[in-house]
Design brief:
It is a single chain. This protein is mainly alpha-helical. It has 2 domains: about 45 residues; about 120 residues, Alpha-Beta Plaits (2-Layer Sandwich), CATH 3.30.70.920. The protein is built from 7 helices and 3 strands; from the N terminus they run ααααβαββαα. A 3-stranded antiparallel β-sheet has the order 1-3-2, with helices on one face. A hairpin with a 4-residue loop joins strand 2 and strand 3. The termini are far apart. InterPro entries: Cation_antiport_E (IPR002758). This is Multisubunit sodium/proton antiporter, MrpE subunit. It holds the Pfam family MNHE. It is found in: Cell membrane.
Length: about 180
């Protein structure tokens, strides 16, 4: 009985879906075999419990989506201009300390930053909540590099206000217990 409690059933269901997709047919045999494989994998390779504290804030989500689409467009055009333009391509790797500490917010921020053309997350240091971001810049001066850091921090604020808990939003704003949205 204790063994059954260690199994993460949502993960088993996902593994069943993947198993059936790999076989290409939905049959009782494929589903049962997928169930057996999923249970064995969960028992053989136990994962820590997933604490998903995701909240959807419609206004924050709309702001994030609008700004993200704008960022994608502008950064794509800027990247094309830099690649096709004359001269060397100035690049840098920046350390950007983030304010959010939650794994989900760090991951979502890293994914959003990497999706924008001209930037890529090289490393995420979980212990210090620091993103190391490779950026292409039109200039390699201190002001443009600080602007790139500010863009990452702005994207972090938008991500947290779109998906974070009230505590994460308040922590980001520096006002414990309040919701800045």
């Amino acid at each position: 009985m204790r063994t059954l409690r260690r199994i993460q059933w949502p993960l088993v269901v996902w593994l069943i879906v993947v198993w059936v997709l790999l076989w290409g047919k939905v049959t009782a045999g494929n589903v049962l075999t997928g169930l057996a494989v999923g249970v064995v994998l969960c028992l053989a390779f136990p994962l820590p419990p997933l604490e998903l504290e995701l909240r959807l804030h419609p206004v924050g989500l709309a702001r994030f989506a609008a700004r993200f689409v704008a960022d994608l467009t502008v950064a794509g055009l800027r990247t094309v201009a830099q690649i096709l333009g004359p001269g060397p391509l100035p690049c840098a790797v920046l350390a950007v300390p983030l304010r959010s500490r939650g794994d989900l917010m760090l991951t979502a921020t890293a994914v959003a930053v990497s999706a924008v053309p001209g930037s890529a997350v090289v490393e995420l240091q979980r212990s210090t909540s620091t993103l190391f971001v490779h950026v292409m810049s039109s200039r390699a001066d201190a002001a443009s590099l600080e602007q790139a850091r500010d863009e990452v921090r702005r994207l972090e604020r938008l991500v947290v206000r779109a998906f974070g808990t009230r505590a994460e939003i308040a922590e980001l704003a520096g006002r414990p217990g309040t919701d800045p949205s």
